[in-house]
Amino acid sequence: MENIDEYYMELAIREARKAMEQEEVPIGAVIVLDHKVISSAHNLREITQKATTHAELLAIEKACEEIGSWRLENSTLYVTLEPCPMCSGAILLSRIKRVVYGAKDPKAGCAGTLMNLLQDSRFNHQSEVENGVLEDECGELLRTFFRNLRQKKKAQKTEMMGNGLNTIN
Predict the structure, then answer these.
(1) Which of 2, 30, 38, 143 is the most buried (most CB within 10 A)?
(2) Which residues are catalytic?
(3) How high is the pLDDT of residue 160?
(4) Domain enclosing residue 68, as ranges
């Protein structure tokens, strides 16, 4: 199962790279049903300026359209970063059977890091969770993105100071 998981995670990483090319946080998602990719997506939050345009939610929406049902039973979601609370809720409500993610999210991870919404028995659905698939590659995309963002902001600040915009009258 691991080689199959790595194959589909590579596809999610490709989606994450698309996000990075658009100056979005590089998170990608792929949904697979019966060994077939039924949807893929990447973050679009900066472009759309909508809090809900996370890769997982966009992939879930496309998958539902593809199969003509809100129930994604027997499907697997591959995502490069551990799902947040909002995405975890959508995963449960769409009945995704299995979630495979790469990097853990220490700030918002709800598939085992901060909490585990996906396997909470109080809900009427639980998802199987597999973590750490191509974790280094997924994590490096995020580290590179945020390092570049910090450098860009630092350069802009330095440029503003050099243009005399930081003078006190």
Answers:
(1) 30
(2) 56
(3) 80
(4) 4-161
Residue 22 lies in a domain: yes
Query: How far apart (Å, rounded) are the C-alpha atoms in residues 161 and 79?
Result: 40
Q: For the segment 86-142, what is each residue's pLDDT rounded down to a tens digit?
A: 999 999 999 999 999 999 999 999 999 999 999 999 999 999 999 999 999 999 999
Residues marked as binding for Zn(2+)? 54, 84, 87
| pTM of the predicted model as reported, rounded to 2 decimal places | 0.91
Query: pLDDT (tens digit, 9 = 90+) per residue, 22-64?
Result: 999 999 999 999 999 999 999 999 999 999 999 999 999 999 9
Say if residues 111 and 131 touch (Cβ distance below 8 Å): yes
- Residue 117 is part of a domain; what is its CATH number? 3.40.140.10
In a domain, 92, yes or no: yes
| Total count of domains within the chain | 1
> How many residues would you count in the chain?
169
Instruction: Count, in order, helices (H) and strands (E) of the chain.
Output: 5, 5
CA-CA distance, 41 to 75, in Å (whole number)? 15
Cα angle: 84, vertex 126, 43; to 5 degrees:
25
46: number of Cβ within 10 Å: 13
Nearest alpha-carbon partner for 13 in 158, 142, 146, 151: 142
- The reply to whether 169 falls in a domain is no
* 168 within some domain: no
